[in-house]
Amino acid sequence: xxxxxxxxxxVQERIRKRERRIAYFSMEIGVEPKxxxxxxxxxxxxxxxxxxxxxxxxPMVAVTLIYKQGYFRQQIxxxxxxxxxxxEWNPRKFMKLRRQxxxxxxxxxxxxxxxxxxxxxxxxxxxxxxxxxDTDIDGNSDYDRSLVQRLYGGDDKYRLAQEAVLGIxxxxxxxxxxxxxxxxxxxxxxxxxxxxxxLLRQRDIIEPDSHKIDGxxxxxxxxxxxxxxxxxxxxxxxxxREVLGEFLPMDTIRAFAGEDRxxxxxxxxxxxxxxxxxxxxxxxxxxxxxxxxQIDSITNGIHAWTWTSDPFRDLFTRFIPGCKNEPTSxxxxxxxxxxxxxxAHAEAKRKLIQHVAMTSGTVLDGETLTIGFARRAxxxxxxxxxxxDIARLKHIAGEAGGVQFVFxxxxxxMDDDGKNLIRKIIEISxxxxxxxxxxYLEDYDMQLARLLVAGVDVWLNTPRHPQEAxxxxxxxxxxxxxxxxxxxxxWWIEGCIEGMTGWAIGSIAGNQRAGMExxxxxxxxxxxxxxxxxxxxxxxxxLERVVVPTFYNDRARWIEMMxxxxxxxxxxxxxxxxxxxxxxxxxxx
Length: 589
Ligand SMILES: *Cc1c(COP(=O)(O)O)cnc(C)c1O
Fold this sequence. Notes:
By secondary structure, this protein is an alpha/beta fold. It is built from 21 helices and 20 strands.
């Protein structure tokens, strides 16, 4: 993968601190595969956002935590059991340690916080610093030093303390580093919402009805990513008092963050002038979850160039010059020569098959329809849906040239259902040996994602509606000409043009709800897919009637679809378009 920044690069643009107006806060940021500071979609989105902001010269700085043992390195043993190993890495190889420090009080202890500075350099040379906060400093207690070891590890107290370092420490350190003219604080998900309380405290706002609160609200922007109530971080006020002490009067915190528990989402909602969901359907669901709030939508994107495979980069460079920093121009992919598209795809597929053989020993077939599924292994994403009826799948695979599958994804260490999914798929892969090729690759990360989304023929996604707020991996596939076969949820409700950019699993009910009548014009069988059984049935039906026959019998039509994936979806579902929307709707408003 092309690495974006380069600390050792000789020419560094001088960062003029006074011009930086937007501070982007995220619990995880993934910018490079070898920096394990992310777990999945949220962190990759944050990294892609910053890359596009750098390309577009948006005057931003970003703040997150360092995670010295990363999320974890995944090993899967012969029985399909996931093992989590610490990911040891050396931040020094990627960034510079800054000497400034600030204090944050946690459980009454004064905890010292410093930062590592990493620079993301845009296509035009403009750079955006990311500050990775660090409490692993001599003088801090062992517990406080441990707060930057693991992403999403530990108990509620550990998490709240981490969020205090991020939100409170982050605001203080930016100021200490000289970024004193920040006009907007953008909270990417609720983990950083304690920053709102720090902004109140700095202005001596201790009454919840102070007229000065509007000034803070004007500075805050909140993007929610969670479509289910259980997904929102909440802490008991007992714990809040224990960890934060008398940071602000409890009644003031309660007034903004909820009466019974401190709800990080509610806190951000109450203290932001602009709030958005990450797809139109997610906006609808969020409005239902939080009635009374103005919630807009800005659909997620991907940093198109980062996720474009090398063969397609070569192709685009020849036919669509300039698209590296202008993904809108990918719309011209509509006239790319068919043989060139197929050649580029064959090359991406060859690279994937080579990687699979090297890492797993499984030799996949280059001519066989290859279906990819890789994302966090967690119950609602239903990685096993396609194996609901093995006999049916065998029948479909036996008809034409067959199908084969590549899976990958980590389960959160505490997510037993997710771990069981991995074990189940590995068991099934054994049972199907010799009939249907199924491989589960270890240690899914950005590097592997980049190989997978480009190297498979179809990108499969089977979330339980409406739990996929947006999803972005299908966008990565699209920019490489790979159509999605997906349940209508998240971005796909907007991105699916049936038979053009991919296929819907189930009915178009979801589209109608979001007012997207243009998308997914063909109705699926029956009345859609409300249950797992319905969705599996709809998936088999679409595979058997449409996907498999088109792939093997109508290559011209298939390549026409690949063109549409790039031209229609690649040109739109990117972070350049997305960042422009944030600028217009949230940053300069
Ligand atoms: C893009 C990406 C994701 C997000 O995948 P979804 O299918 O959108 O959930 C997760 N993990 C990695 C490593 C990614 O690159």
